[in-house]
Amino acid sequence: MERIKEKELTKLYYSIGEVAEMFNVNTSLIRFWEKEFSSIKLKKNKKGNRLFTPKDILKIDDIYHLVKTLGYTLDGAKKAMKSNSSITSDETKNVNQEVILRLEKIKEKLITLKS
User: Fold this and answer.
1) 50 touches 13 (CB < 8 A)
2) Are 60 and 95 members of one domain?
3) Distance between CA 53 and CA 40 in Å, rounded?
4) What is the pLDDT of residues 8-67, one digit of tens each?
5) Same domain as 42, residue 26
């Protein structure tokens, strides 16, 4: 899934249904992440409906990217969020390329050892 850009978020507030639809997840997952991650500080209206600002949505995008795309555990994602080290997609590509190169070198060494 492509990351959400701040420019795309034109409204002042979004409902939980709209946010869940952006990420193609259930509203219950958004509520769960709201409880788990203290960095999400959304507002509620008089009826108690959750109102998400673009900043909240960008934080949820970071959580989604860490948990669903990069495979972090919730604890790992919390640590990454606290240290402000959420990994961008460009950094992820660089890390993946580095890992692939290392694995190819190991493969070559194993093949030479086998022969």
Assistant:
1) no
2) no
3) 10
4) 888 999 999 999 999 999 999 999 999 999 888 889 999 999 999 999 999 999 999 889
5) yes
